[in-house]
Amino acid sequence: MTLKKxxxxxxxxxxxxAGIQADxxxxxxxxxxxxxxLTVVATMDPDNNWSHSxxxxxxxxxxxxxxxxxxxxxxxxKTGMLSTEEAIQTAGEAIEESxxxxxxxxxxxxxxGEDEVLNPGTVDAMVKYLLPKAEIVTPNLFExxxxxxxxxxxxxxxxxxxxxxxxxxxARNVVIKGGKQLQHDKAADLFYDGKTFTLLEAEKTxxxxxxxxxxxxxxxMTANLANGLSVKEAVLEAKKxxxxxxxxxxxxxxxxxPVLHGAKNKVGAPDxxxxxx
Length: 277
Ligand code: PXL
Description:
Blueprint: E1 5-13, H1 19-29, E2 33-45, E3 51-56, H2 59-70, E4 76-79, H3 85-98, E5 103-105, H4 122-130, E6 136-137, H5 141-148, H6 156-168, E7 174-177, E8 187-192, E9 197-202, H7 213-226, H8 231-247, H9 263-267, E10 272-276
The protein binds 3-hydroxy-5-(hydroxymethyl)-2-methylisonicotinaldehyde.
């Protein structure tokens, strides 16, 4: 038996819901073989309101992992948390070396509840080294505005303008995640392929237990691309996967509730609609 191989270049979320842990769980649910190159280790302090610390790994260690990973013959790559310009450039070079089209860039700038861009300069580096290589880029509203050099979109019309800008910067497809900030009655994400805008909608789930949703969404797209789906199908199926995961989010402790990565395969997915707008 051979499996499609999906590589994530991302950080470890010690609490297990986001980051590389979300990616591996999601890959497993999609039947792809997960391979990792770890960039940072994120920890959360239970004595300080679960505040995050991010420890970057030495760049040599990232490069050594990428050498191992690429030698296995990867089918699709996802990037997640990359805390330094050097790590972003290194990820860009690894993608280049892989010659893969199936590249999903999740431009992680913040962890939920924290509101700072990881490092000054990382936004410019993402635009330079990663956007032009993205088959799909998956920013949230804040990240989309930062990458585009525009203000954070809060309406679907504004999301459309930002998506056009991100496409013009080299991303072949753009998925802007609406999240909770978007003023809309559904849980909506905007998909733009350079020609058509498609609004993906699911019923909103009244939950705070959605930690890891963004990573899970992008990882599901990555696995779907590796498994041969078209970009549009990969995004639509990933939306179903993450909607199920959010609808079944659960309480890990008083600070955090992760999504249930395996929910779609266990209990099925809620309805998702795709409407050209
Ligand atoms: O959810 C964004 C994210 C990505 N990657 C890592 C994280 C987080 C948030 O906690 O820890 C490693």
